[in-house]
Amino acid sequence: MVKENEVAGRLEWRVNMPNGSSRILAPESRETCSRLQSLVMGIVLNIKAFLDKAWNLAVNEPKKVVHCLKVGLALSLVSVFYYMRPLYDGVGGNAMWAVMTVVVVFEYTVGSTLYKCVNRAIGTCLAGSLGIGVHWVASQAGDKFEPVILQVSVFLLAAAATFSRFIPTIKARFDYGAMIFILTFSLVSVSGYRVDKLVELAHERVSTIAIGASICIFITMILCPVWAGTELHHLISNNLEKLADSLAGYAAENFSVDGSKNVHEKDSSKKLQGYKCVLNSKAAEESMANFARWEPAHGKFNFRHPWKQYLKIGASMRSCAYCIETLHGSINSNTETPEFLKKPLNDVCMRLGTTSSKVLKEMSSMIKTMKKSTKLDILVDEMNSSVEGLQNALKIFPSYQHIPTPDPGTEEAPNGTEEPSLKSTALSLMEIVQMATLTSLLVEIASRIEGIVEEVKELASQAEFRDESSMKSKQTQTKINGNDGNEHEVTMKTLQKV
Amino acid sequence: MVKENEVAGRLEWRVNMPNGSSRILAPESRETCSRLQSLVMGIVLNIKAFLDKAWNLAVNEPKKVVHCLKVGLALSLVSVFYYMRPLYDGVGGNAMWAVMTVVVVFEYTVGSTLYKCVNRAIGTCLAGSLGIGVHWVASQAGDKFEPVILQVSVFLLAAAATFSRFIPTIKARFDYGAMIFILTFSLVSVSGYRVDKLVELAHERVSTIAIGASICIFITMILCPVWAGTELHHLISNNLEKLADSLAGYAAENFSVDGSKNVHEKDSSKKLQGYKCVLNSKAAEESMANFARWEPAHGKFNFRHPWKQYLKIGASMRSCAYCIETLHGSINSNTETPEFLKKPLNDVCMRLGTTSSKVLKEMSSMIKTMKKSTKLDILVDEMNSSVEGLQNALKIFPSYQHIPTPDPGTEEAPNGTEEPSLKSTALSLMEIVQMATLTSLLVEIASRIEGIVEEVKELASQAEFRDESSMKSKQTQTKINGNDGNEHEVTMKTLQKV
């Protein structure tokens, strides 16, 4: 044991020996000892912090834990092929490919798993057949040219496939497929040079990959499936709610006349920052929309659910969030407007903030329930009338003469006393700037919310949201599809050009 | 050949037969014919558009083409192992693993290639040794329990490793490694059940992976290397320039008094939109900074170059871009302010816009050249004095009485004629709102630019940018490192706690 004693103003370190005596530690061994201790302490603390973080993650998102168990289950299932003699004899050493397929293909959402499965299947088949074709051509060319042809084909196709991965449309849909194409083509065309019975080998590999992929698809779709589409749907609806909370919280904090703003300080500041999630959700939205396209019909979503429309809603939400961010910034960085200036506009601003927030909330619940809302138009009208109210208030805004100045009684502002009257004018104008920015940002936010409303309405019509009077829900399904008519028209035009 | 004749106001379709006669086409065959034609046309047009896009990409970013050729070269090199009898005998059928390694590990930037190589190496070794260990334990447990132990271990470790991929710190650095860990562990522990000579097999696989990885690292670092760090550096510096152009363009478009704003209309509108790149570059910045950490010293960058600081600059740039976006939006959506109101503030706004843009430009060139700039402080001072100038101008802003109204001569505004005077007041106040928003957004942008300046200065000190009087460049290298001192202090404190 190490003990610290202060002897005559000087630190001294003692180690208690097993026999009861104690020994003074030399400075270097003290240092080593303490370093070791601090190192161990640091590691322990780090591990603890890490485990805490992991535990919180697990508690907050149990779906992710379930996903982990699903991966474990899929791997256990696929490894059965090794343990069961009859199964092993069926697929041979290639069972490895099934394991590999499960590991690389099993993703968090159904959509991304399907995306990878389909890509892997297409890439493998395409590259496999092409590889066998090239191998056949090469084998006809004689022993000398065979490796040259194979090498050149690998070089060219790998380069071309790699390049295709840079093209945005390919990257979005077939990035993984292109990689698998390169992999399979190289393996087949190169190993074909050594391995006989190439077709048989390819057949075995394809069948093991199919086994792996089908296990993945089965498990991911049956056991607590996480649909990318549903996640996107919830993300958009939650983000709308966060924007609404942000705006309502902001209005309450800045325009409320009662002292309610200090209640639940911490909770409200968290809500106020909600718009930041919207600012940063672009990448998540895009990848989810990408994967959602691969998913079959599930829950309330059809196969051709307009996922792209969610991206448009996301974009207009972000444009609104930029404005809210500026609003927060422009208020935080400046001094507060004095009460006597604030009062005339506070009520109208509060009303605009509240009605805007209500529109956002209504859209959020409209998306959440997938029902058309009759209230939405009313709320939008309310918001617009608040905007008008604000503009009217600005029009009858008390002019600067009525503002109390250090020397009152200069109501009629005679031209002779320019110096003091100018000063009081200046003060009020500077503060009008502050208040004016606030109001015009609020108006701008309202106009951007109208942009969101349009996109949400477009979604409602494309996705055939039910009317709130849910009796009519069946009528929408028998709606005549207008696309056929359009196609016909185009064909006729092409005909007439011949 | 199909011909169209108009006979008595009715369309008729004729096919010329090989024997010279012609036959009237029945409607259905016409339709089939035209459909086929439009289908082929559509496909051809699509392919042409796709090829055009690809060609443009290749012309605009030749680096990407070079990358494709590098991938082709790496695959050709690694396939040599198959064609050379002595090499093939050395690594056996496992040469496949070398090919696979090249395909999955070879990435666009050096950093991401290194990240994947290191992750693959760590993951493979860790999982391989663990797998062999588990296999040994299982083999001691007897034939009955062996598969059970293996299954359970695969299940548990796969689930745990999958979960670790959800933890942000692990995801950022070891996501790929965790996947390889699962893959290798499953393969080793499962296939170990069948394959004898497990250690030998593992050795062969590791050596082939090492061959593949070293070929990748060699090619990616020697032939036209694309460093993630350098890309990040250029991205940040370019984005600063884009912001500057956006702001300068905006100022020129809205505040310039001469007619210069219509020159190069298209070019300037592209520049005006530059801030949008900044809004959307977060994901790119983060992944580049992530990969840059894995890169060795290269060009002007040391091994411990402060890549994280670039992210901070990016964040403050984005916060500035939000404001610029709002500025653009608030102008586009409202009516223009009449000239008589604009004139008094135009000059100061123009000056503020120009000086702010100059500060951004200076920072961009400072980062580009990696030299400390003596001009920067002067430019910031200029910007701040423009802000003051703007605020002063607001203070002496002509009050609404001097604004020409439909009925002039109401300078003294007698209280009796309230109705018309209120109207003229209202007009001017509404337009003050517009102008006020503009000015206060400009001021806000300037204050956010100061935030960027601070982050850039921090980068300059952390990355030890050279002084512009480049004589002193050698002094910075011998600067005493303060970290040791800090560490010592911490140790002493820990010591005293014991």
Automatic annotation (TrEMBL), chains A, B:
This protein's UniProt keywords: Ion channel, Ion transport, Membrane, Transmembrane, Transmembrane helix, Transport
Write down a Pfam family by its short name: ALMT
Its localization reads: Membrane
Can you supply one Gene Ontology CC term for this chain's record?
plant-type vacuole membrane
Tell me which InterPro entries the record gives: ALMT (IPR020966)
Using the UniProt annotation, give all residue ranges assigned to the region (Disordered): 401-421, 464-498
Q: Which GO terms describe its biological process?
A: malate transport; monoatomic ion transmembrane transport
Ranges in coiled-coil conformation: none
Bilayer-spanning residue ranges: 65-84, 90-110, 117-136, 148-167, 174-194, 206-228
Bias category Polar residues: which stretches?
Answer: 472-484
Annotated membrane topology: Multi-pass membrane protein
Q: Member of which family?
A: Belongs to the aromatic acid exporter (TC 2.A.85) family.
Give the PANTHER family listed for this entry: ALUMINUM-ACTIVATED MALATE TRANSPORTER 10
What is the name listed in the Swiss-Prot or TrEMBL entry for this protein? Aluminum-activated malate transporter 10
State the gene name recorded for this protein: LOC101257304
